[in-house]
Amino acid sequence: MTDPDTDDADKTQPTAPRPEDARPAPAPPAQASAAEGPPAPAQAAPAAAPPEPEPVCPHCRKPLSLCVCEGVEPIENRVALLILQHPQEQDKLLGTARLAARHFTNAVFKVGLSWPSLEKALGRPADPRRWAILHLGSVDPATLPRGRDIAVVDSKGIPAPDQDTALKGIDGIVVFDGTWSQAKTLWWRNPWVLKGKRLVLAPTKPSLYGRLRREPRREGLSTLEAAALVLSRLEKQPEIETRLLDSFGRMLDRYRDSGLGAAPAKPDRRGRRPFRRRKS
Ligand SMILES: [Zn+2]
Fold first, then answer.
1. What SMART domains does the record point to (predicted)?
2. Ligand 1 centroid vs 62 CA: distance in angstroms?
3. Residue 54 gets which letter from DSSP?
4. Is there a smaller number of Cβ atoms within 10 Å at the N or the C end of the chain?
5. Three-state secondary structure along the chain?
6. How many CB atoms lie under 10 A from the CB of residue 234?
């Protein structure tokens, strides 16, 4: 596992070790579920404040100009999706976790750092041994089975000899939403994930983020792309991936059209710039 001193502000669903993210850490909010939390606060503008923020979609929590929720028709998925978002993951503009969850009837989105069990995180009974998590440790790409873009590996990153059998009987997947270091934190704060199977992704195409977010590794996918890839393979329904990527593409188009990306990066509430370049 590498531990370089690079500084990424991007957020991906890593499939292999990613550089440390050194974002400043605000106090984490209490955990909340997507279903109940209040919509993002529309802040009253104090005198001489910047222009009022654009209204936010209650579902994806994005400014309405970036929201693509209207075109989303939830898919009835058999393999459940549980997305656990690190409280410091604050990318309201380009984050994809809520949008990903919105695509499925059988999906749960939570914000928090730790849950005592899968059951508590999910809000219903579940056997963690029948769930899978994206492996965060290192994997030698040369050992991955050919012709597959997802594979089950053991705790040392060694692929299971019989992938078809290993991929069977998975009831759901846990996806951590956050930077590489945030995902690692979530991993260690939720030891019940160790009971599950571990999946490695070897996508054949790079993330649609393209240059909007610098990807240190080609297989660094957004949370939405990772969920789309895994669920479409586990359910053997390519359409799942097509539909999610279509929504993601529309969101990115809106982002590019909105000019939000072109505007000079303005500090967010914590004074952090949304996009930072690598320190050199
Ligand atoms: Zn929306």
1. DTW
2. 6
3. P
4. C
5. CCCCCCCCCCCCECCCCCCCCCCCCCCCCCCEECCCCCCCCCCCCCCCCCCCCCCECCCCCCEHHHCCHHHCCCECCCCEEEEEECCCCCCCCCCCHHHHHHCECCEEEEECCCCCCHHHHHCCCCCHHHEEEECCCCCCHHHCCCCCCEEEECCCCCECCCHHHHHCCCCEEEEEECCHHHHHHHHHHCHHHHHCEEEEECCCCCCCCHHHCCCCCCCCECHHHHHHHHHHHHCCCHHHHHHHHHHHHHHHHHHHHHCCCCCCCCCCCCCCCCCCCCCC
6. 21
Residue 268: band (very low, low, confident or very high) from pLDDT cuts 50, 70, 90: very low
Quote the CA–CA distance of 268 and 245 in Å, as a whole number. Answer: 28
Ligand 1 midpoint to CA 262 (Å) = 22
Interstrand relation of 32-33 and 131-134 (parallel, antiparallel or unpaired):
unpaired
Measured in Å, residue 271 CA sits from the centre of ligand 1 at 25
- Measured in Å, residue 119 CA sits from the centre of ligand 1 at 28
pTM: 0.75
Structure tokens at 165: 């059998």
